């Protein structure tokens, strides 16, 4: 069972009280972008085996969207934080780096997959 703490209201909720919203920190491409950039924005996702950043909504609570950093294999949660950020807070990145040596922001998918094999 996945348990997350909403960074807005502080409530600890299991995943049945939340709504998953897919991968966090996607770079949006709009008018003027190439077809490939728009395709990647719409369809390409990291889908890592390991550290993942996700969007969640506290549906049965305050209703706000937030981000969560967690491991897809162990369900370990590294932290949650407000959705109005372009990258994870430094304290969460430091926590992940401490537990997953060699991990770094935006190099997690290839690095974690290679390390795991
Ligand atoms: Zn909440």
TrEMBL record:
<dbReference type="GO" id="GO:0008115">
    <property type="term" value="F:sarcosine oxidase activity"/>
</dbReference>
<dbReference type="InterPro" id="IPR006279">
    <property type="entry name" value="SoxD"/>
</dbReference>
<protein>
    <submittedName>
        <fullName>Sarcosine oxidase subunit delta</fullName>
    </submittedName>
</protein>
<dbReference type="GO" id="GO:0046653">
    <property type="term" value="P:tetrahydrofolate metabolic process"/>
</dbReference>
<dbReference type="InterPro" id="IPR038561">
    <property type="entry name" value="SoxD_sf"/>
</dbReference>
<dbReference type="Pfam" id="PF04267">
    <property type="entry name" value="SoxD"/>
</dbReference>
């Amino acid at each position: 069972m996945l348990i997350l703490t909403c960074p807005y209201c502080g409530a600890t909720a299991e995943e049945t009280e939340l709504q998953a919203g897919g991968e966090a920190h996607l770079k949006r491409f709009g008018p003027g972008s190439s077809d490939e950039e728009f395709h990647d924005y719409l369809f390409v996702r990291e889908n890592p085996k390991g550290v993942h950043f996700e969007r969640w909504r506290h549906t049965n609570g305050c209703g706000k969207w937030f981000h969560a950093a967690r491991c897809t294999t162990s369900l370990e949660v590294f932290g949650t934080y407000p959705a109005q950020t372009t990258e994870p807070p430094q304290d969460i990145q430091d926590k992940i780096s401490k537990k997953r040596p060699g991990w770094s922001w935006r190099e997690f998918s290839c690095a974690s997959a290679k390390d795991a094999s």
